[in-house]
Amino acid sequence: MGRSPCCAKEGMNRGAWTAHEDKVLTEYIKLHGEGRWRNLPKNAGLNRCGKSCRLRWLNYLRPDIKRGNISPDEEELIIRLHKLLGNRWSLIAGRLPGRTDNEIKNYWNTNLGKKVHDHQQQGSASDLKHHKNGEPNSKKAKMMDMAAASSHVVRTKAAKCTKVFINPHPHKIPLGHNHQHYNEETNAGGLMFDDKPAAMDDDHINRTRSFSSFSNINADQENSTSDFLVDFDMDEISLANLLNSDFPEINHDDLNHISSDNVMSRCVDETAQFFSEGMLQHW
DNA sequence: AAGAGGGGCAACCGCTCCTCT
DNA sequence: GAGAGGAGCGGTTGCCCCTCT
Prior knowledge:
The protein has helices at 19-32, 40-44, 50-61, 72-85, 89-94, 101-130, 139-148, 202-214, 239-244, 252-256, 263-274, 277-282. By secondary structure, the protein is mostly helical.
């Protein structure tokens, strides 16, 4: 299936973006919104590839971007999510408001990856000490232990999700499936796609929509437990809650043999394992 | 003071998936 | 159903800056 290159490479600006280019792109997107990246450079008068524009906007120019100063909580969350999801940077970034996949990927490669690796080497020698009393010495050590066991990473199915599934019977939504954005207190059974709360940005809406499509693929046997993590809202669930919970190891044999008949109940059970009872009640 | 080496990070590349016709 | 285009993702590259010698 041949296809034309996304842009003519000859004559295109490459490399670092200038302040002027940033300004042009920002103003164009403010005026016309995101999307149609392929035509954007031409329409905006930028001598850049559309993909380059998209990347620049998503990673640096968006107004809600947080840069640098990754907090210890965020760091621990990244480790946990990486343990669960592997190198699914976009999913991990989606759980950290204001953070981009590129930033997290870089942060992992330059900081966390090394830390985890170092700890893995040290840990193998000191595991016995750590667990002598039944528990690791510290929360941090526990975190590193989990992250180090990267062989247990669950690979979610890569999917671009644009379809929205709205459950006609929201009260029947099983625990662990759509409850992430089914807030009983504020949205009595209604998904929040149209009534956008003031505190909710477009990105959140997009993520919510994205996750909704996962609910549409319950027959997909590959859709393992980790998919249920794709859209819990970090604004609703504090980092502390998440960090205080434990992610048990996942039995991949189990995941591979979930039948379509019991996939839902399994997912509910497994989701419950991932999060503390308190967190589930909070949802 | 200057060159070498390494680390961090922004940007690019290629692949994959989804949608549309 | 097949092909083409649009968009997103993860891996990799290359530049810049800082530190070390």
